[in-house]
Amino acid sequence: MLDADKVFAGSVPENYDRYMVPLIFEPYAVDLARRAASFSPRAVLETAAGTGAVTRTLAPQLPADARYVITDLNQPMLDYAASRQPPDSRIEWRQADAMSLPFDDASFDIVICQFGAMFFPDRTAAYREVKRVLKPTGRFLFNVWDRIEENVFAHDVTNALAQIFPDDPPRFLARTPHGYHDTDLIRRDLADAGFSDVEIDTKADQSRAPSPRIPALAFCQGTVLRTEIEARDAGKLAAATDHAEAALAARHGNGPVSGKIQAHVIVATA
Ligand SMILES: C[S@@+](CC[C@H](N)C(=O)[O-])C[C@H]1O[C@@H](n2cnc3c(N)ncnc32)[C@H](O)[C@@H]1O
């Protein structure tokens, strides 16, 4: 992972929430929130919460006396999440790096993290932090994307951009969001951090959009891919987005499009 891969700022939070969340994050947020709520937790920590895809789904399912602490490394993402959340006295917002959590030992029943682990520079260290703040027998629920070949639109957009920048293809999607899919490695990292019981469920779904323009905009302008494209040629963002759209249209048609998405969902017990 490059240092720039974890900077979600500028126009990314708004485009991320508008295009990316409905495209690929919502179905997994519903799944992760359902799993978390099934434990009836009283104290929940969410890390790498982004613009609040899980938060919006989970908050209504938590008990009235629950404490729900929502964190992210990037304040602009958290600000966006907070702006979309109705007033709720159970919720606390806090900027925090998952690598160094500003919470006491044994504070939470559940730590939840949707599609954040891929961005942590040292996963075992991050998981150790999770274990430290979990109560004994607390649970860590998180998910990570499977390999990019199992995630059709992300793969198509990556291939399309390689045609525009053949000498230095923007590889953010393959490198980081889709770069931590080896379930043996995930199990090893969790075991090294002290988690004894680990269940991994590989879950496929369909990503749908009214036209190929939406996934092109989502990936090229609602993710760190935007920064990568602009770093190569600031004037080429629109052309790169158009090219990705044309490639998606050539493969999936000009009308409503759908493509496979796949992720691993992990429940680890402290
Ligand atoms: C792909 S987004 C997922 C956001 C959200 N969970 C969702 O499902 O839409 C990854 C998030 O990880 C956050 N992030 C990256 N590195 C982080 C770190 N070290 N600690 C906490 N959050 C981090 C980013 O700011 C971003 O919001």
Outline the structure in words.
With 270 residues, the protein is α/β, with parallel strands linked by helices. It has one domain (3-269): Vaccinia Virus protein VP39 (Rossmann fold). Helix content is 42%, strand content 23%. It contains ten helices and seven strands. It has helices at residues 12-37, 53-58, 75-84, 123-133, 152-164, 172-175, 183-192, 213-221, 225-232, 237-252; strands spanning 43-47, 67-72, 91-95, 108-114, 134-145, 197-209, 257-269. A seven-stranded mixed sheet has the order 3-2-1-4-5-7-6. The longest helix is centred in the N-terminal third of the chain and has 26 residues, at 12-37. It is globular.
The helix fraction, in percent, is 40-55%
CATH class annotation: Alpha Beta
Total of domains: 1
Proper CATH architecture: 3-Layer(aba) Sandwich
Helix-and-strand structural type: alpha/beta
Major sheet strand order: 3-2-1-4-5-7-6
CATH overall fold name: Rossmann fold
Topology pattern, helix = H, strand = E: HEHEHEEHEHHHEHHHE
Rg for CA atoms? 18 Å
Query: What amount of the residues lies in strands?
Result: 15-25%
User: CATH superfamily assignment?
Assistant: Vaccinia Virus protein VP39
Number of DSSP helical runs: 10
Low-confidence stretches: none
How would you concisely characterize the structure shown here?
With 270 residues, this protein is α/β, with parallel strands linked by helices.
Descriptive terms for the model:
Rossmann fold; single chain; seven-stranded mixed β-sheet; alpha/beta; 270 residues; 23% strand; binds S-adenosylmethionine
